[in-house]
Amino acid sequence: MVIDDVDNDNRYDIITLDSSSQKIDILYDDGNRTFTIHTISLPTILWLRPVSTADVNNDNKRDIVILDSEFKKILIYLNNGNCKFTEHMNYSIGTDPLFLTTEDLNADGYSDIIIGYRSAEGVNVQLNDGNGMFPGEAVFYRTVCPSHFVTIADLNGDHTLDIIALCPSVHKIVILFNNW
Ligand SMILES: [Ca+2]
Ligand SMILES: [Ca+2]
Ligand SMILES: [Ca+2]
Ligand SMILES: [Ca+2]
Protein backbone atom coordinates (compact mmCIF):
# COMPACT_ATOMS: atom_id res chain seq x y z
CA MET A 1 0.00 0.00 0.00
CA VAL A 2 1.19 3.51 -0.81
CA ILE A 3 -0.11 6.88 0.36
CA ASP A 4 0.35 9.67 -2.19
CA ASP A 5 -1.56 12.47 -3.86
CA VAL A 6 -2.08 11.07 -7.35
CA ASP A 7 -4.70 13.57 -8.55
CA ASN A 8 -2.87 16.72 -7.37
CA ASP A 9 -5.72 18.00 -5.19
CA ASN A 10 -3.49 18.27 -2.09
CA ARG A 11 -5.27 15.35 -0.43
CA TYR A 12 -3.53 12.04 0.11
CA ASP A 13 -4.95 9.07 -1.74
CA ILE A 14 -4.47 5.35 -1.04
CA ILE A 15 -3.05 2.94 -3.61
CA THR A 16 -3.38 -0.77 -2.85
CA LEU A 17 -2.59 -3.93 -4.77
CA ASP A 18 -5.06 -6.75 -4.74
CA SER A 19 -3.12 -9.88 -5.76
CA SER A 20 -6.09 -12.21 -5.60
CA SER A 21 -8.21 -10.29 -8.09
CA GLN A 22 -5.39 -8.84 -10.21
CA LYS A 23 -6.05 -5.17 -9.75
CA ILE A 24 -4.86 -1.95 -8.23
CA ASP A 25 -7.39 0.05 -6.25
CA ILE A 26 -6.85 3.78 -5.99
CA LEU A 27 -8.92 5.39 -3.26
CA TYR A 28 -9.17 9.10 -3.99
CA ASP A 29 -9.74 11.23 -0.91
CA ASP A 30 -12.89 13.29 -1.53
CA GLY A 31 -12.06 15.61 1.34
CA ASN A 32 -15.11 14.81 3.42
CA ARG A 33 -13.91 11.56 5.01
CA THR A 34 -15.01 9.53 2.02
CA PHE A 35 -13.04 7.99 -0.82
CA THR A 36 -13.90 7.27 -4.44
CA ILE A 37 -12.39 4.04 -5.74
CA HIS A 38 -10.92 3.67 -9.22
CA THR A 39 -9.50 0.36 -10.34
CA ILE A 40 -6.72 -0.62 -12.75
CA SER A 41 -6.90 -4.20 -13.96
CA LEU A 42 -3.56 -5.98 -14.17
CA PRO A 43 -2.65 -8.21 -17.10
CA THR A 44 -1.35 -11.34 -15.43
CA ILE A 45 -1.49 -13.16 -12.16
CA LEU A 46 1.29 -11.65 -10.17
CA TRP A 47 2.94 -12.54 -6.94
CA LEU A 48 4.37 -10.41 -4.13
CA ARG A 49 3.94 -7.08 -5.80
CA PRO A 50 5.50 -4.13 -4.08
CA VAL A 51 4.05 -0.91 -5.44
CA SER A 52 5.56 2.55 -5.50
CA THR A 53 4.54 5.93 -6.87
CA ALA A 54 6.77 8.39 -8.69
CA ASP A 55 6.46 10.89 -11.50
CA VAL A 56 8.57 8.86 -13.94
CA ASN A 57 7.88 11.00 -17.03
CA ASN A 58 8.08 14.39 -15.32
CA ASP A 59 4.63 15.66 -16.28
CA ASN A 60 3.74 16.57 -12.69
CA LYS A 61 1.43 13.59 -12.30
CA ARG A 62 2.36 10.70 -10.03
CA ASP A 63 2.64 7.37 -11.82
CA ILE A 64 2.50 3.82 -10.46
CA VAL A 65 5.44 1.41 -10.56
CA ILE A 66 4.92 -2.26 -9.64
CA LEU A 67 7.27 -5.17 -9.25
CA ASP A 68 6.00 -8.48 -10.51
CA SER A 69 8.36 -10.74 -8.60
CA GLU A 70 6.86 -13.94 -10.00
CA PHE A 71 7.50 -13.07 -13.65
CA LYS A 72 10.48 -10.81 -12.83
CA LYS A 73 9.08 -7.72 -14.43
CA ILE A 74 8.58 -4.07 -13.67
CA LEU A 75 5.24 -2.61 -14.74
CA ILE A 76 4.74 1.12 -15.08
CA TYR A 77 1.35 2.80 -15.31
CA LEU A 78 1.33 6.44 -16.37
CA ASN A 79 -1.11 8.84 -14.81
CA ASN A 80 -3.22 10.57 -17.49
CA GLY A 81 -4.97 12.80 -14.97
CA ASN A 82 -8.77 12.45 -14.67
CA CYS A 83 -8.23 9.32 -12.53
CA LYS A 84 -7.03 7.24 -15.48
CA PHE A 85 -3.80 5.28 -15.83
CA THR A 86 -2.35 3.63 -18.93
CA GLU A 87 0.21 0.87 -19.08
CA HIS A 88 3.39 2.57 -20.19
CA MET A 89 5.89 -0.24 -20.34
CA ASN A 90 6.84 -3.47 -18.72
CA TYR A 91 10.26 -4.97 -18.88
CA SER A 92 12.05 -7.96 -17.53
CA ILE A 93 14.62 -7.83 -14.80
CA GLY A 94 16.97 -10.59 -13.76
CA THR A 95 17.27 -13.12 -10.97
CA ASP A 96 14.83 -13.02 -8.06
CA PRO A 97 13.51 -9.51 -7.38
CA LEU A 98 11.59 -9.09 -4.16
CA PHE A 99 11.24 -5.39 -3.45
CA LEU A 100 11.03 -2.14 -5.36
CA THR A 101 11.06 1.52 -4.49
CA THR A 102 11.49 4.77 -6.44
CA GLU A 103 13.62 7.87 -5.82
CA ASP A 104 15.87 10.15 -7.85
CA LEU A 105 19.20 8.72 -6.78
CA ASN A 106 21.47 10.56 -9.22
CA ALA A 107 19.71 13.91 -8.67
CA ASP A 108 18.96 14.56 -12.36
CA GLY A 109 15.32 15.35 -11.65
CA TYR A 110 13.96 11.98 -12.82
CA SER A 111 12.81 9.19 -10.53
CA ASP A 112 14.87 6.02 -10.66
CA ILE A 113 13.93 2.48 -9.63
CA ILE A 114 15.73 0.61 -6.85
CA ILE A 115 15.29 -3.15 -6.57
CA GLY A 116 16.05 -5.53 -3.70
CA TYR A 117 16.48 -9.29 -4.13
CA ARG A 118 15.53 -12.51 -2.45
CA SER A 119 19.01 -14.05 -2.73
CA ALA A 120 21.24 -11.70 -4.74
CA GLU A 121 23.57 -9.88 -2.38
CA GLY A 122 22.98 -6.34 -3.49
CA VAL A 123 20.53 -3.83 -4.90
CA ASN A 124 20.06 -2.71 -8.47
CA VAL A 125 19.44 0.88 -9.50
CA GLN A 126 17.68 1.36 -12.82
CA LEU A 127 18.20 4.92 -14.01
CA ASN A 128 15.43 6.93 -15.69
CA ASP A 129 16.46 8.31 -19.09
CA GLY A 130 14.33 11.44 -18.60
CA ASN A 131 11.45 10.16 -20.74
CA GLY A 132 10.12 7.73 -18.19
CA MET A 133 12.07 4.88 -19.79
CA PHE A 134 14.72 2.75 -18.11
CA PRO A 135 16.79 1.46 -21.02
CA GLY A 136 20.27 1.25 -19.55
CA GLU A 137 21.85 -1.63 -17.72
CA ALA A 138 21.08 -1.51 -14.02
CA VAL A 139 23.84 -0.39 -11.65
CA PHE A 140 24.45 -3.11 -9.07
CA TYR A 141 25.58 -2.27 -5.55
CA ARG A 142 26.83 -5.07 -3.36
CA THR A 143 25.40 -5.34 0.13
CA VAL A 144 27.05 -8.70 1.02
CA CYS A 145 23.65 -10.08 2.04
CA PRO A 146 20.27 -10.50 0.32
CA SER A 147 18.42 -7.18 0.56
CA HIS A 148 14.76 -7.98 1.02
CA PHE A 149 13.67 -4.44 1.81
CA VAL A 150 15.12 -1.14 0.66
CA THR A 151 14.40 2.42 1.65
CA ILE A 152 16.01 5.68 0.59
CA ALA A 153 17.03 8.69 2.70
CA ASP A 154 19.91 11.12 3.08
CA LEU A 155 21.58 9.66 6.16
CA ASN A 156 24.80 11.69 6.19
CA GLY A 157 23.32 15.11 5.43
CA ASP A 158 25.25 15.69 2.18
CA HIS A 159 22.00 16.27 0.22
CA THR A 160 22.37 13.02 -1.71
CA LEU A 161 19.99 10.13 -1.20
CA ASP A 162 21.52 7.00 0.34
CA ILE A 163 20.32 3.40 0.19
CA ILE A 164 19.31 1.53 3.34
CA ALA A 165 18.91 -2.22 2.80
CA LEU A 166 17.48 -4.72 5.27
CA CYS A 167 18.98 -8.23 5.19
CA PRO A 168 16.76 -10.42 7.40
CA SER A 169 18.72 -13.62 6.77
CA VAL A 170 21.77 -12.20 8.59
CA HIS A 171 19.88 -9.73 10.82
CA LYS A 172 21.66 -6.74 9.31
CA ILE A 173 20.97 -3.31 7.91
CA VAL A 174 23.38 -2.18 5.21
CA ILE A 175 23.84 1.49 4.36
CA LEU A 176 25.21 2.52 0.97
CA PHE A 177 26.24 6.16 0.86
CA ASN A 178 25.55 7.91 -2.41
CA ASN A 179 28.61 8.81 -4.51
CA TRP A 180 26.70 9.99 -7.57
CA1 LIG B 1 -5.50 13.39 -3.97
CA1 LIG C 1 3.84 11.28 -14.54
CA1 LIG D 1 17.42 10.03 -11.67
CA1 LIG E 1 23.69 11.22 1.54
UniProtKB/TrEMBL annotation:
The keyword Transmembrane does not apply. It comes from the Eukaryota. Keywords: Signal. The keyword Repeat does not apply. PANTHER family: PROPROTEIN CONVERTASE P (PTHR44103:SF1). This is VCBS repeat-containing protein. It comes from Rotaria sordida. The lineage of its organism: Eukaryota, Metazoa, Spiralia, Gnathifera, Rotifera.
